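REQUEST ID: PR-0412
SUBMITTED BY: lab tech R.K.
PRIORITY: routine
TASK: structure prediction, single protein chain
INPUT:
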Amino acid sequence: HSIDGSRSWVFFPVFYHLRRLGVELGKSVVYQESNSETRVDVKESVRGQDIFIIQTIPRDVNTAIMELLVMAYALKTSCAKNIIGVIPYFPYSKQCKMRKRGSIVCKLLASMLAKAGLTHLITMDLHQKEIQGFFTFPVDNLRASPYLIQYIQEEIPDYRNAIIVAKSPSAAKRAQSYAERLRLGLAVIHGEAQHSESDMADGRQSPPLSRTTSGHPGLELPLMMAKEKPPISVVGDVGGRIAIIVDDIIDDVEDFVAAAEILKERGAYKIYIMATHGLLSAEAPRLIEESAIDEVVVTNTVPHEVQKLQCPKIRTVDVSMILAEAIRRIHNGESMSYLFRNIAVDD
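STATUS: complete
OUTPUT:
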Protein backbone atom coordinates (compact mmCIF):
# COMPACT_ATOMS: atom_id res chain seq x y z
CA HIS A 1 0.00 0.00 0.00
CA SER A 2 1.22 3.56 -0.52
CA ILE A 3 1.50 6.65 1.62
CA ASP A 4 1.98 9.14 -1.20
CA GLY A 5 2.01 6.99 -4.34
CA SER A 6 5.41 5.44 -3.71
CA ARG A 7 5.56 2.09 -1.98
CA SER A 8 6.41 1.54 1.65
CA TRP A 9 5.82 -1.35 4.04
CA VAL A 10 5.45 -1.47 7.79
CA PHE A 11 6.45 -4.75 9.43
CA PHE A 12 5.16 -5.50 12.91
CA PRO A 13 7.01 -8.14 14.95
CA VAL A 14 4.61 -7.02 17.72
CA PHE A 15 1.24 -5.46 16.83
CA TYR A 16 0.97 -1.72 17.37
CA HIS A 17 -1.95 0.61 16.65
CA LEU A 18 -0.95 2.79 13.69
CA ARG A 19 -3.97 2.21 11.45
CA ARG A 20 -4.29 5.98 11.01
CA LEU A 21 -1.47 5.80 8.42
CA GLY A 22 -3.57 3.74 6.01
CA VAL A 23 -0.61 1.44 5.36
CA GLU A 24 -1.17 -2.29 5.37
CA LEU A 25 1.05 -4.64 7.31
CA GLY A 26 3.95 -6.18 5.44
CA LYS A 27 3.67 -9.89 4.92
CA SER A 28 6.14 -11.60 7.21
CA VAL A 29 6.30 -14.40 9.75
CA VAL A 30 8.28 -14.25 13.00
CA TYR A 31 8.34 -17.34 15.18
CA GLN A 32 10.38 -19.41 17.62
CA GLU A 33 11.59 -22.82 16.53
CA SER A 34 11.47 -25.81 18.86
CA ASN A 35 15.05 -25.10 19.93
CA SER A 36 14.07 -21.47 20.83
CA GLU A 37 15.89 -19.96 17.85
CA THR A 38 14.20 -16.97 16.21
CA ARG A 39 13.28 -17.31 12.56
CA VAL A 40 11.97 -14.59 10.23
CA ASP A 41 10.44 -15.12 6.80
CA VAL A 42 9.62 -12.07 4.64
CA LYS A 43 6.76 -13.07 2.35
CA GLU A 44 6.98 -10.31 -0.29
CA SER A 45 9.54 -8.30 -2.20
CA VAL A 46 11.05 -5.32 -0.36
CA ARG A 47 13.76 -4.45 -2.89
CA GLY A 48 14.37 -0.69 -3.05
CA GLN A 49 11.62 0.13 -0.54
CA ASP A 50 11.42 2.05 2.76
CA ILE A 51 10.72 -0.45 5.53
CA PHE A 52 9.51 0.53 9.02
CA ILE A 53 9.90 -2.15 11.69
CA ILE A 54 7.73 -1.35 14.70
CA GLN A 55 8.86 -3.22 17.78
CA THR A 56 7.30 -2.60 21.16
CA ILE A 57 9.08 -4.28 24.03
CA PRO A 58 7.01 -6.93 25.88
CA ARG A 59 7.99 -8.80 29.05
CA ASP A 60 10.58 -10.93 27.23
CA VAL A 61 12.98 -8.13 26.34
CA ASN A 62 15.81 -10.23 24.92
CA THR A 63 13.53 -12.21 22.58
CA ALA A 64 12.06 -8.95 21.29
CA ILE A 65 15.56 -7.59 20.59
CA MET A 66 16.56 -10.75 18.77
CA GLU A 67 13.40 -10.61 16.64
CA LEU A 68 14.24 -7.02 15.72
CA LEU A 69 17.84 -7.84 14.79
CA VAL A 70 16.92 -10.87 12.69
CA MET A 71 14.10 -8.97 10.96
CA ALA A 72 16.40 -6.03 10.14
CA TYR A 73 19.11 -8.32 8.78
CA ALA A 74 16.57 -10.25 6.68
CA LEU A 75 15.38 -6.98 5.13
CA LYS A 76 18.96 -5.80 4.58
CA THR A 77 19.86 -8.98 2.71
CA SER A 78 16.62 -8.60 0.71
CA CYS A 79 17.92 -5.26 -0.60
CA ALA A 80 15.54 -2.90 1.21
CA LYS A 81 16.43 0.73 0.51
CA ASN A 82 15.97 2.08 4.05
CA ILE A 83 15.25 0.16 7.26
CA ILE A 84 13.77 2.36 9.96
CA GLY A 85 13.28 0.97 13.45
CA VAL A 86 10.32 2.35 15.40
CA ILE A 87 11.06 1.44 19.02
CA PRO A 88 8.89 3.62 21.30
CA TYR A 89 10.67 2.37 24.43
CA PHE A 90 14.35 1.70 23.82
CA PRO A 91 15.43 -1.26 26.00
CA TYR A 92 18.57 -1.24 28.15
CA SER A 93 18.45 2.56 28.15
CA LYS A 94 19.15 2.67 31.89
CA GLN A 95 22.47 0.89 31.27
CA CYS A 96 23.96 3.89 29.52
CA LYS A 97 26.72 4.67 32.02
CA MET A 98 29.82 2.81 33.10
CA ARG A 99 29.33 1.16 36.50
CA LYS A 100 32.69 0.01 37.85
CA ARG A 101 33.28 -3.39 36.17
CA GLY A 102 29.99 -3.29 34.28
CA SER A 103 29.44 -2.31 30.66
CA ILE A 104 27.47 0.24 28.67
CA VAL A 105 24.93 -2.21 27.27
CA CYS A 106 22.97 0.56 25.54
CA LYS A 107 25.99 1.32 23.36
CA LEU A 108 26.34 -2.40 22.54
CA LEU A 109 22.70 -2.58 21.45
CA ALA A 110 23.10 0.53 19.28
CA SER A 111 26.08 -1.09 17.52
CA MET A 112 24.15 -4.34 17.01
CA LEU A 113 21.21 -2.50 15.41
CA ALA A 114 23.56 -0.68 13.03
CA LYS A 115 25.31 -3.93 12.10
CA ALA A 116 21.96 -5.64 11.51
CA GLY A 117 21.05 -3.00 8.93
CA LEU A 118 19.00 -0.25 10.57
CA THR A 119 19.47 3.13 8.89
CA HIS A 120 17.25 5.27 11.12
CA LEU A 121 15.61 5.05 14.55
CA ILE A 122 12.39 6.57 15.88
CA THR A 123 12.02 6.34 19.64
CA MET A 124 10.45 8.28 22.49
CA ASP A 125 11.86 9.83 25.67
CA LEU A 126 15.24 8.14 25.89
CA HIS A 127 16.35 7.73 29.50
CA GLN A 128 19.32 10.00 28.73
CA LYS A 129 19.33 12.20 25.62
CA GLU A 130 23.07 11.55 25.20
CA ILE A 131 22.18 7.98 24.15
CA GLN A 132 21.61 9.38 20.65
CA GLY A 133 25.39 9.73 20.39
CA PHE A 134 25.77 5.93 20.60
CA PHE A 135 24.28 5.51 17.12
CA THR A 136 25.99 5.86 13.78
CA PHE A 137 22.70 6.67 12.02
CA PRO A 138 20.01 9.35 12.60
CA VAL A 139 17.83 9.11 15.72
CA ASP A 140 14.54 10.96 16.27
CA ASN A 141 13.83 11.10 20.01
CA LEU A 142 10.16 12.11 20.19
CA ARG A 143 8.56 13.53 23.35
CA ALA A 144 5.47 12.35 25.19
CA SER A 145 5.27 15.39 27.48
CA PRO A 146 2.70 17.29 25.32
CA TYR A 147 0.28 14.38 25.70
CA LEU A 148 0.86 14.03 29.44
CA ILE A 149 0.51 17.80 29.97
CA GLN A 150 -2.74 17.71 28.00
CA TYR A 151 -3.96 14.90 30.26
CA ILE A 152 -3.17 16.97 33.35
CA GLN A 153 -5.08 19.95 32.00
CA GLU A 154 -8.12 17.99 30.86
CA GLU A 155 -8.43 15.08 33.29
CA ILE A 156 -7.19 16.34 36.67
CA PRO A 157 -9.84 18.50 38.35
CA ASP A 158 -8.49 21.70 39.89
CA TYR A 159 -5.02 21.07 38.46
CA ARG A 160 -4.23 24.74 39.12
CA ASN A 161 -3.91 23.72 42.77
CA ALA A 162 -1.29 21.11 41.88
CA ILE A 163 2.45 21.09 42.38
CA ILE A 164 4.95 19.19 40.22
CA VAL A 165 7.23 16.88 42.21
CA ALA A 166 10.61 15.36 41.35
CA LYS A 167 11.12 12.19 43.38
CA SER A 168 14.89 12.78 43.34
CA PRO A 169 17.21 15.68 42.48
CA SER A 170 18.18 13.90 39.24
CA ALA A 171 14.57 14.22 38.02
CA ALA A 172 14.37 17.93 38.81
CA LYS A 173 15.00 19.13 35.24
CA ARG A 174 12.11 17.12 33.84
CA ALA A 175 9.85 18.28 36.68
CA GLN A 176 10.89 21.89 36.14
CA SER A 177 9.92 21.64 32.46
CA TYR A 178 6.42 20.44 33.40
CA ALA A 179 6.07 23.09 36.10
CA GLU A 180 7.04 25.94 33.76
CA ARG A 181 4.67 24.81 31.01
CA LEU A 182 1.75 24.37 33.40
CA ARG A 183 2.62 27.53 35.42
CA LEU A 184 2.76 25.46 38.60
CA GLY A 185 5.10 25.23 41.58
CA LEU A 186 7.94 22.74 41.93
CA ALA A 187 8.95 20.45 44.80
CA VAL A 188 11.88 18.05 45.06
CA ILE A 189 12.22 15.03 47.34
CA HIS A 190 15.77 14.79 48.62
CA GLY A 191 17.48 12.05 50.59
CA GLU A 192 15.96 8.89 49.16
CA ALA A 193 18.48 6.25 48.10
CA GLN A 194 18.59 5.74 44.32
CA HIS A 195 19.39 2.09 43.74
CA SER A 196 20.47 2.59 40.13
CA GLU A 197 23.01 5.20 41.19
CA SER A 198 24.31 3.51 44.35
CA ASP A 199 27.90 2.51 44.74
CA MET A 200 27.53 -1.17 45.54
CA ALA A 201 30.46 -3.20 46.82
CA ASP A 202 32.05 -4.96 43.89
CA GLY A 203 35.10 -6.60 45.44
CA ARG A 204 37.58 -3.83 44.76
CA GLN A 205 38.48 -3.70 48.43
CA SER A 206 39.45 -7.39 48.45
CA PRO A 207 42.12 -8.01 45.80
CA PRO A 208 43.99 -11.33 45.64
CA LEU A 209 46.35 -11.77 48.57
CA SER A 210 49.25 -12.57 46.25
CA ARG A 211 49.25 -9.01 44.90
CA THR A 212 50.61 -5.98 46.68
CA THR A 213 48.03 -3.31 47.44
CA SER A 214 50.47 -0.53 48.31
CA GLY A 215 50.90 2.35 45.90
CA HIS A 216 54.11 3.79 44.55
CA PRO A 217 56.41 5.02 47.34
CA GLY A 218 55.84 8.70 47.86
CA LEU A 219 52.52 8.71 45.98
CA GLU A 220 49.76 10.05 48.23
CA LEU A 221 46.27 10.30 46.75
CA PRO A 222 43.59 12.34 48.51
CA LEU A 223 41.06 10.17 50.31
CA MET A 224 37.53 10.49 48.95
CA MET A 225 35.03 11.01 51.73
CA ALA A 226 32.25 8.45 51.85
CA LYS A 227 28.77 9.61 50.93
CA GLU A 228 26.31 9.94 53.78
CA LYS A 229 22.62 9.62 53.03
CA PRO A 230 20.83 12.71 54.32
CA PRO A 231 17.45 12.47 56.07
CA ILE A 232 14.52 12.48 53.67
CA SER A 233 13.09 15.93 53.13
CA VAL A 234 10.77 17.69 50.71
CA VAL A 235 12.02 20.96 49.26
CA GLY A 236 8.84 22.88 48.55
CA ASP A 237 5.40 23.19 50.15
CA VAL A 238 2.94 20.43 49.16
CA GLY A 239 0.45 20.98 51.98
CA GLY A 240 -3.15 21.08 50.73
CA ARG A 241 -2.02 20.55 47.14
CA ILE A 242 -2.33 17.92 44.42
CA ALA A 243 1.11 16.33 44.00
CA ILE A 244 2.07 15.22 40.47
CA ILE A 245 5.26 13.15 40.33
CA VAL A 246 6.80 13.09 36.84
CA ASP A 247 9.44 10.72 35.46
CA ASP A 248 10.34 8.97 32.20
CA ILE A 249 10.08 5.32 33.36
CA ILE A 250 8.03 3.63 36.04
CA ASP A 251 9.21 0.07 36.55
CA ASP A 252 9.90 -1.04 40.12
CA VAL A 253 7.54 1.22 42.02
CA GLU A 254 9.01 1.10 45.55
CA ASP A 255 10.55 4.56 45.17
CA PHE A 256 7.27 6.02 43.91
CA VAL A 257 5.29 4.40 46.74
CA ALA A 258 7.75 5.77 49.32
CA ALA A 259 7.57 9.22 47.72
CA ALA A 260 3.77 9.12 47.84
CA GLU A 261 3.83 8.30 51.56
CA ILE A 262 6.18 11.21 52.24
CA LEU A 263 3.97 13.60 50.26
CA LYS A 264 0.89 12.40 52.16
CA GLU A 265 2.68 13.05 55.44
CA ARG A 266 3.52 16.57 54.24
CA GLY A 267 -0.15 17.31 53.51
CA ALA A 268 -0.72 16.49 49.82
CA TYR A 269 -4.33 15.34 49.46
CA LYS A 270 -4.05 13.67 46.04
CA ILE A 271 -1.06 12.06 44.33
CA TYR A 272 -0.62 11.38 40.63
CA ILE A 273 2.32 9.78 38.83
CA MET A 274 3.00 10.68 35.20
CA ALA A 275 5.53 8.66 33.20
CA THR A 276 6.19 7.94 29.54
CA HIS A 277 7.08 4.25 29.78
CA GLY A 278 4.96 2.07 32.04
CA LEU A 279 7.03 -1.10 32.42
CA LEU A 280 5.35 -1.90 35.75
CA SER A 281 7.35 -5.05 36.41
CA ALA A 282 6.91 -7.72 39.08
CA GLU A 283 4.54 -6.69 41.88
CA ALA A 284 4.10 -3.11 40.66
CA PRO A 285 0.29 -3.26 40.10
CA ARG A 286 -0.36 -4.67 43.59
CA LEU A 287 1.97 -2.17 45.26
CA ILE A 288 0.30 0.73 43.45
CA GLU A 289 -3.16 -0.51 44.39
CA GLU A 290 -2.21 -0.74 48.08
CA SER A 291 -0.34 2.58 48.17
CA ALA A 292 -1.33 6.21 48.73
CA ILE A 293 -1.04 6.84 44.97
CA ASP A 294 -4.38 7.91 43.47
CA GLU A 295 -3.55 7.45 39.79
CA VAL A 296 -0.68 6.34 37.55
CA VAL A 297 -0.74 7.77 34.02
CA VAL A 298 1.53 6.23 31.36
CA THR A 299 1.60 6.15 27.57
CA ASN A 300 1.17 3.08 25.39
CA THR A 301 4.83 2.85 24.35
CA VAL A 302 4.94 -0.47 26.24
CA PRO A 303 2.06 -2.99 26.39
CA HIS A 304 0.55 -3.04 29.89
CA GLU A 305 -2.99 -4.37 29.46
CA VAL A 306 -2.46 -7.11 32.05
CA GLN A 307 -1.25 -4.61 34.64
CA LYS A 308 -4.33 -2.44 34.03
CA LEU A 309 -6.57 -5.40 34.79
CA GLN A 310 -4.70 -5.93 38.06
CA CYS A 311 -4.79 -2.27 39.09
CA PRO A 312 -7.62 0.11 38.10
CA LYS A 313 -5.49 3.11 39.15
CA ILE A 314 -3.43 2.80 35.92
CA ARG A 315 -4.50 5.06 33.04
CA THR A 316 -3.16 5.09 29.46
CA VAL A 317 -2.48 8.01 27.11
CA ASP A 318 -2.30 7.17 23.40
CA VAL A 319 0.79 8.50 21.59
CA SER A 320 0.34 6.59 18.32
CA MET A 321 -0.50 9.80 16.45
CA ILE A 322 2.97 11.34 16.80
CA LEU A 323 4.66 8.04 15.87
CA ALA A 324 2.46 7.71 12.77
CA GLU A 325 3.24 11.29 11.76
CA ALA A 326 6.97 10.67 12.21
CA ILE A 327 6.76 7.64 9.91
CA ARG A 328 4.84 9.62 7.29
CA ARG A 329 7.28 12.53 7.34
CA ILE A 330 10.38 10.34 7.13
CA HIS A 331 8.98 8.36 4.21
CA ASN A 332 7.99 11.55 2.35
CA GLY A 333 11.28 13.30 3.13
CA GLU A 334 9.55 16.08 5.08
CA SER A 335 11.02 18.08 7.93
CA MET A 336 10.63 16.65 11.44
CA SER A 337 10.87 20.05 13.13
CA TYR A 338 7.08 20.34 13.47
CA LEU A 339 7.13 17.39 15.89
CA PHE A 340 9.71 19.17 18.06
CA ARG A 341 8.16 22.63 18.15
CA ASN A 342 8.58 24.38 21.51
CA ILE A 343 10.75 21.49 22.71
CA ALA A 344 13.73 22.75 24.70
CA VAL A 345 17.03 20.96 25.35
CA ASP A 346 15.98 20.03 28.91
CA ASP A 347 12.58 18.61 27.89
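NOTES: The chain has eight helices and 14 strands.
REVIEWED BY: pending
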